[in-house]
């Protein structure tokens, strides 16, 4: 039986990208947090070969400058091709979707959607960066510590944990965040089922170096679909000189076979191959039927949240911080499931609307239509959140549109426009960190905000919007307001409320703040 106990506000199970992003966010809010990870060290396999501009926006907002997580060079884009082999015949370059062929995610718009580009930082490099930052912020990260069991009551979660020496102890937390991946122990203990397409394929990968093939990578293509009669595989070239060959499990019957297939995929045996490691993984499309669990059948308060992505972490962390700090009520946490579940299903369906997996769409009934691909700029920057914490959603909206189509619709990511601040030109994206923000060109909103402080305890910052003419995209156009209007943006950069013109008095703003902060 456990012999010792430690208390904390938040316990995070899993030190992958989602768990560590949550930890950094909570550390910035100074919320006591413990992270446990069953691995003794981070995996050396690079896995993801880069991150999108939206993910870079999140990392910038939580304090990672370009010197730590650099953006890809402007001239480089993520590109892929179907080939016989790397140095053999190249058949065609393949767009990510048919909508990409117009060159801007299917859009004819010349609007700039983000001030940032994506990053080529591989996952095995990024995870230690996130971990170090979490530690610097006072988060207790414990590698080699495994969740054994947990129980919940109406006020807390108690986790039974084993340390590297297999000694057991308990950690009692107000809330637990499950960031322990596809084979989540938390989900299994709580018997949370999943639904969705299910298993797609099983993959074995071999990581290696082969410097002699570097000249064939100078065209800028980094992903290769190997298409031979007896070899269907996927090759990724990382910016640091490493390559990984993904092979179907039924073909890669042993590590020896995997290594022997490298020259076949490269198109030459006249190469010095240095194998760095092997891995095996399953590709599945499954979504938990619950994104949070309450501690008792009579309690509506969720004490456990299930976290699949970095954007999910960004959505959840500020809500946990407000609730743990006593500023908001636990009902705010219900908006996590409401907002992220819709997005999760949208992304699930988009997998099978794209060319890669379109043939895997399950047979549809007479009334069912196949999933329709949504253009990349809409999926990247224009997903819609719907919950009680957002004012101005009636359920009739598209699940995703481009930011210029949304024009500041509450429930969407606040758009990027260039503004002046302190004599410098910055993006509105850079205003959204830990605080709530009201943006307006009219200073009257600053006075109205000051009058709300006695009734709403949350910190809200007023930002006067100043733009030098001409601008490619005006604040009024982007946010859908008049020169006297305002937009209220949450700490995760999503619009919670907007007022197209000045309200009658401060009561309107007070009422709006209470609804979005307390999810009334």
TrEMBL record:
Source organism per entry reads Aspergillus sclerotialis
Entry protein name: FAD binding domain protein
Question: Pfam families from the entry?
Answer: FAD_binding_3, Rng_hyd_C
Supply the alphabetized keyword list: FAD, Flavoprotein, Oxidoreductase
A GO molecular function term, named singly, is: oxidoreductase activity, acting on paired donors, with incorporation or reduction of molecular oxygen, NAD(P)H as one donor, and incorporation of one atom of oxygen
Show where the FAD-binding domain sits.
7-292, 313-346
Cofactor requirement: FAD
Domain of life, per UniProt, equals: Eukaryota
Q: Which InterPro entries match?
A: FAD-bd (IPR002938), FAD/NAD-bd_sf (IPR036188), RIFMO-like (IPR050641)
**Oxidoreductase is among the record's keywords:** yes
Instruction: Fetch the PANTHER family from UniProt.
Output: BINDING MONOOXYGENASE, PUTATIVE (JCVI)-RELATED, TRK SYSTEM POTASSIUM UPTAKE PROTEIN
